Amino acid sequence: MCRVVDLQQAVLAKNQDSATALREDLLARGTVVVNLLSSPGSGKTALLEAELTEARRRAVAVAALTADLATENDARRLARSGAPVRQVLTDGLCHLEADMLRSHVDAWLPDGTRLLFVENVGNLVCPASYDLGESLRVVLASVTEGEDKPLKYPTAFGLAQLVIVTKQDIAEAVGFDEAAFLANVRQVNPGVEVLHTSARRGEGVGLLLDRALAVRDGDPAHQPVMARQAAQHSHTHAHAPSPGHSHGPGDPHTLGDHTHGPADHPHSHAPSPAAS
Ligand SMILES: Nc1nc2c(ncn2[C@@H]2O[C@H](COP(=O)(O)OP(=O)(O)O)[C@@H](O)[C@H]2O)c(=O)[nH]1
Ligand SMILES: [Mg+2]
What we know:
By secondary structure, the chain is of the alpha/beta class.
């Protein structure tokens, strides 16, 4: 058991080293990475296509990597913006890792790119534990997903530097309780900025681009995600994950000042890294 925990911590530690080096290299090239996390279907690709199109309209040099277990559908959609786009196929892995990003960056990223948007694998669990060398981590939640998701996925929402509520055009139709959602966000991440968008209607498009450019230009309000991760994850697990599935249901434990459970840890592949 201890060896499994050690292995998982080693996987995360190695990823952290790779992410730190990648962030430094990219910042030296003038490129900032924006990491987009959400459940499948929240509207990452739809919003990103609109943001890339807006960036091109403003002559901001942007590029995008989009990750999925299968298909190149999202890369085709994003490429309609005219921005350079690459599809990353994760071969069954439920998240991206910094080394996967590094190989694409080295082989493809055009010189002069100011913002590299990364659409992570659709999943609010595994991707939350992996720093990709980003300088801005964004979690999207659509109005159809329910107001309690920040509480159910406190790692993803807790580490976000920006939260975007998507599909605002159908909020009323699905009875989205905005105040309840915001209160839940505040519980796991007090002070994080929350934006509202509708890619369908073009509402709020450009706001993500503005925030990303502010980070690139040194907005001191944004702290690197790794520092936040270290602060939030300075706790120990009372249980040990097993290969292929980190722990069983009904095994919650405390993270900082809140409790989270198995759904909030990476567990879909073996060996699976533990959230540390
Ligand atoms: N009504 C509405 N639907 C949207 C919006 N954004 C995305 N969708 C729809 O939601 C579904 C999933 O969107 P997609 O961008 O593929 O989500 P992803 O899996 O997070 O990349 C698609 O059917 C989109 O047309 C929006 O702003 N409003
Ligand atoms: Mg997508």
